[in-house]
Design a protein that fits this description.
13 helices, two-stranded antiparallel sheet, alpha/beta
Length: 318
């Protein structure tokens, strides 16, 4: 009836509705990236922490069932037990933002939390340890976030992968060093490779916060990351999220459930919560008969004041 009686009014009303839709949902409108208030964000994190603690109760029961103590747990049993080490470390904390896979669809891609909150930052920082000739994760993240600079470290190669080396704009924002990440500093003229702690590298680069930290260093992650966490003595860790490949090789000293559990609990005590995991089936496929000892984990840091846990901090970054 309205269309028949007043077509001009109807057209104007529809145009107004359309313009309102465009305003609220255009890409540069901050409200699109803030789907809930800071109070709601804190409440969501609180609820996730509650459920994560329920998972911890389940972990204790699983240790009791198959142990009954951690030192009695075989990480990859072969006598009919229905578990592997990874069943004790479930990624049961839901990231309160969008979770998406960045990088190649295969070995090299990583799962990221809240990329939409990093993209608008005028300045952000990414550290990547372990390059091995493949930089699709780093490149795709930098393409999405033009304010990001990349600091990469790998003593086994001479540069980033072609995804960065062959892109002049990305290469300009990237800094490569043939250093090793370690639990201590060892970079005298006779040290080969030169080793730095993460804390020393941040001081060397003048950084007090890392938005995205990627670590893939072939079982050296345990001591290197453990030392970094210890160095802050309970203070919030200076990064927003962590993408890490954890290695439990059958012939490695860290193929020990009790040691890995203590290390993992250290990360949890520091505020790190796993929100995604992905088995490295490429490794399992290439080395037939190998135990499933490689798995990718993504952690969100729920402590501190950064974009993933505070809308206030997110607003200040623009």
């Amino acid at each position: 009836m309205l269309v028949v009686r007043s077509p001009r009014f109807t057209i104007c009303a529809l145009l107004l509705i359309f313009m309102t839709f465009i305003f609220f949902f255009r890409s540069d409108n901050p409200s699109l990236s803030l789907p809930f208030s800071n109070h709601a964000l804190q409440e969501k994190l609180r609820i996730e922490e509650y459920h994560y603690n329920m998972m911890l109760d389940g972990r204790a029961k699983l240790v009791q069932k198959w142990g009954p103590t951690p030192d009695r747990i075989d990480p990859f049993p072969s006598n009919g037990e229905f578990y592997t080490a990874w069943d004790f470390f479930l990624p049961s904390f839901n990231c309160p933002h969008r979770v998406q896979r960045v990088g190649i669809m295969g070995d090299g891609g990583k799962w990221v939390c809240g990329l939409e909150r990093i993209v608008p930052k005028k300045k952000c920082t990414m550290y990547s340890f372990g390059i091995n000739g493949e930089s699709s994760f780093e490149a795709d993240l930098m393409k999405a976030a033009p304010g990001c600079e990349l600091y990469g470290y790998d003593f086994s190669v001479d540069s980033f992968g072609p995804e960065i080396e062959e892109d002049p704009e990305l290469k300009q924002r990237s800094h490569f060093f043939a250093f090793a990440l370690g639990p201590t500093d060892a970079h005298s003229p006779v040290d080969d490779p030169k080793m730095y702690t993460l804390r020393t590298l941040m001081e060397r680069n003048g950084h007090d916060f890392i938005d995205v930290l990627k670590i893939d260093i072939e079982a050296n992650e345990f001591e290197s990351l453990g030392a970094f966490v210890d160095s802050f003595a309970g203070q919030p860790l200076p990064f927003g999220q962590l993408q890490i490949e954890i290695h439990m090789y059958s012939d490695h000293p860290w193929n020990n459930f009790s040691k890995v559990l203590k290390w993992w609990e250290k990360l949890e005590a520091a505020g790190l919560r796993p929100f995604f995991s992905e088995s490295n089936l490429v490794y399992t496929n290439l080395i037939r008969g190998a135990q499933p000892g490689l798995i990718e984990y993504s952690f969100i840091n729920i402590r501190g004041n950064h974009e993933l846990v505070s809308n206030h901090r997110y607003s200040l970054a623009h």
